[in-house]
Fold each of these.
Amino acid sequence: MEYEAVIGLEVHAQLATRSKMFCGCDANVFEAKPNTHTCPVCTGMPGALPVINELAVEYAIMAGLALNCQIAKFTKWDRKNYHYPDLPKGYQISQYDLPLARDGWLTIEVNGYQKRVDIRRAHLEEDTGKSSHAGDHSLVDLNRSGVPLLEVVTEPDLRSAEETYAFLVTLRSILRYLGISTADMEKGAMRCEPNISLRPVGAEEYGRQTEIKNLNSFRAVRAALAYEIDRQTRILESGGRVERVTMGWDEQRGVTIPQRSKETAEDYRYFPEPDLPPLLIGQEWVERVRAQLPELPDARKARFIEHYGLSAYDAGVLVADKETADFYEDAARAYGGKPKTVSNWVSGELFRLAKESGAAGGVTPAGLAELVSLVDRGAISNSTAKEVLAEMYRSGEAAGEIVARRGLAQISDQEVLEAAVVQVLAENPEQVQQYLAGKETIAQWLMGQVMRATRGKANPQVALALLTRQLDARKEQS
Amino acid sequence: MRLTLAEVEHIAELAHLSLGEEEKVRYREQLSAILEYAQQLQELDTDAVSPTATVLPIHSVTRPDNPQPSMGQDDLLSNAPASADGMFRVPVILE
């Protein structure tokens, strides 16, 4: 029997506010000394009261609008109760029945087809602390406790590991364009817990699902889902039953393994947070935020195609990452020539350099524009330009300076090249005779000698023209 | 509304309490009495009443996103029964 995967996602993204969700502690806690970004509110001291960070709400509205959601006019906070050492209050302030945003959708593109993925809801909550395990005890750091989180929940619309990967990349791209989250999974700023079940193709009913945890990268999500689809398929094909459990992804071994969990079903006993009055979000606020939304990846892609004449593929590659898109636009403007030329350099050589070094590199948009202009003017050849770009990338030096310092400038000077051509012909009388005898392909070999004599710096077009002229002249004489 | 013993055990587990057999019976009686008392409210017709989100006459209280000084690590950990490496030291967590 053919099975299809049914995947839904819960994604948590830390919002890039300066202070925490409900207190003034510095929210930038990455690699901070343990328990230094804490106060009575985020460590759950008796009597401490939370106050809502207005910017976090605004960021959530931005995200809601970008995900085509309805923004609630009336939203409230609820306590999600459970005991864990990294949750000092014994409950997490979240939103239960009246989330800030709901009923949205996102379009993703996978292997050339487009697909709409419905968003069930997006709401605000606070992050928990962090626990680490050290042999016979555990250690708790509450820096992260209270950092604002946006939780996005999709409908079970995804059908493969690839679609899920594409959704996450698209969501990350949107969050980054909005500037509301670094959405960096490796650093824990974005976390994803997919649930997945299989059902026979064409069936309406859902199968029994598992949830996957401990996914610390986009690649891990894709690999874990591919593995889990395979695992569940094998169980179903052998007539077995998928257990409804939480699976943990083991990155080293590349397998999902059931996590030890208690028998009791989740029971969070949500109730309205008595310490926080509800939040009314007026239409004016929503409209003000809408008016300030930056251009999002889809719109930018359309503009790149329209305005710069790029192919859908090229535009898609460039807009996926906001910084790349910004870089491209700045470079294309500074260059002023054919935008496609700059696009080729960015998505070709620059991407290759970035991939090899894994670092940002020292090339500026204006620097790339200068380099491409040097090629256009014939000052350097295309292959020399690649070499120069690699050096720009390493050192941050300007293209012109590198070319001058290393003497890479292409020789286009007619007299210099003519002298080189004449010398090559004089040194190779035998080949010239073959040419005159009708073996015209030998001209290519002679051209190679000219390039060698000039150590590769001869402008090929100019040199070829001169060589042809010299050979023709000798032909007429003979 | 009378709770079953299993429900009492479930609630105790959520609250991380371990109850003896005699306690389970006693709390079953007490919790049931409380629920029965509160159940009187169910007699009211609340169809036309929207759920109460707050009893306070205020809404939309927010603060600007300005970081404020935090407590020191020493201050925070001075309340901790045990600490190590600047962190709270707790019994090992089973995951």
Amino acid sequence: MRSVDVARTALGNTFRSKLRTALTVVAIVIGAFTLTLTSGLGAGVNKYVDNVVAGFGDSSQLFVLNAGASDAEPTEGPAEYDPEAATDSGGMFGPGTGGGLLTESDIETIEDIDHVSGVDPVVMVSPDYLETADGAQYDLTLDSPANAVGLELEAGEAPGDDGMDLSIPTEWLTIFDTEDAEAVIGETVQIGISDVTGEQTSVEAEIVGVTEEALSGIGATPMPSRELNQELSDLSMEGYEGQAEQAYSMAVVDVDDLAANEDSVKSALTDEGLLGMTVEDQIGAVQGVIDAVSWVLSGFGLIALLAASFGIVNTLLMSVQERTREIGLMKALGMSSGKVFGLFSMEAVVIGILGSVIGVVLGLGAGLIGNGWLTGEGGPLGGVAGLTLFAVDPVSLLGITALIIGIAFLAGTLPAARAAKKDPIEALRYE
Amino acid sequence: MSIPVLETENLVKVYGKGATRFDALKGLTFEIHEGESVAIVGKSGSGKSTLMHLLALLDEPTAGVVALEGEPVNKLKPKKISQLRNDTFGFVFQQFFLNPNQTVLENITLPLKIAGMGKSERNRRGMEVLEQLDMADKAKNKATNLSGGQKQRACIARALVNKPTVLFADEPTGNLDTVTSEIVEDILFGLHRDYGITLVVVTHDEDLAAKCQRRLMMQDGEIVTEEHSVKEVQA
């Protein structure tokens, strides 16, 4: 029997009992649909994260945090006070922030590590207000300049290292009575901050960019340049008597040839109780979580498929029983056992192909429509710039189809083997 | 004399073991030559069906040898035996075994499909045989819509479509009325006479058996007598 005839006969036989085939196919469709949606969801969110990373460029920078908290033994109830650890974890801002701050001595330590070409400590400041040219004042919380790489820009550019620059989110356009993001570029504002004695001073800053809020939250608040941030920090420390120890939330470290020296710099940092992370590390952790979630969801799809595979076994076993005579005749007329096996496993494969194609197409449709509705204009998630919840990944779609056809084939082997084993004489006698 | 198309030597078939042991065939040795018509006659339980299954290579003997054109088939692989059946034999069954969902043409070209022949060639050969049996107008009919005689003719067409050397007929008229039986008998013996097909008929019908050149009378797993017709079979 030719392969094409095996395939054609299998296809014909599959449609002989339409209702039974349809019900079996529905079970497969549910599995395929679920897998298509979950893998598309994973691909979509990862694509969004990738887009965010793409804005970071290929950075030679390492973000260094104090790993201090991880030194402390977890205790039940209140931990005993340890003066050394408290100092270690960083001066006046240390306690209460999880011991995550860097001290001046930490910065010096980092500078001494091989391959480190520059260290840029990041200072957190708490300004009081932002004042526009017409005198209106607004409550102000500033983002850290270290997050500048993650900004999604609507207009202008991200605040850089130098210059008294500031970016504002699109929501803040209202304070300039405009909806045109380009129009506010170049406007100047006053930022007020109190020093330790409670005296307020202000500095002038220029708006260089307008940002949209990213999924990470970056861009939702105004962001200063590094120079502006440092200036505000210096103003806030004015009037402090005694030895002020500067504390930094983190440091941006430039490394020569990051790709080659990443591991050695990281291990040197770890030895000092510090934690170094590249952009990829930070994003990778996020993507790892997304992948894990989409795998768990895919697990449910696989469970559906497992149930469906028993449906195939059941359907084909019934079919073999019903067609005992036909099998006997085919064998009597010279069909080899191998071909009989091939014919019945091909019927399983036909069911698998039908189920997977219908399921994948439905899944794609639901994913694309759902994505359009959720993230489109006016949708519940429409406010998050550049968000995609569902992406078409041809490789994983092919993978899903192949997986389902493989499962269908495996499910078909038991009934097919039973058909192949039939004795033609017994089968022809069967009433 | 030429090499017999089928021959057996001390053919034994035993079913079961111990107390349930049943000797279906007790050492048969005979030959069937090309172009012969042979009837295997006996009551039910005489072993005639078992003998036919062994001759048609559908079953394996417990002991003894079946040889096809001088070649013992015991040593052949199952796949090769399947192929031999497909090439050499045609089968006519009492219960027809036609697939009711398929057309007559699809039914009768099944052996060619199994042999791996292309569709257009299959259909050409199928139509040829149907015309030979005056069934061409039924080619597109579903098998389930045929009368008993038409079904048996379709069954004969299926047996002939691969141009077999030997045609096995297992109670070919068992399910047919007298008039239809005669038509079917005429077709079978006509094929034997006109095309020289070797005919092996298994039956308990003495009238049908009488039309064959040779009759092997079976009882309790043994050939008790063998008769030869002297005169030519009447048309």
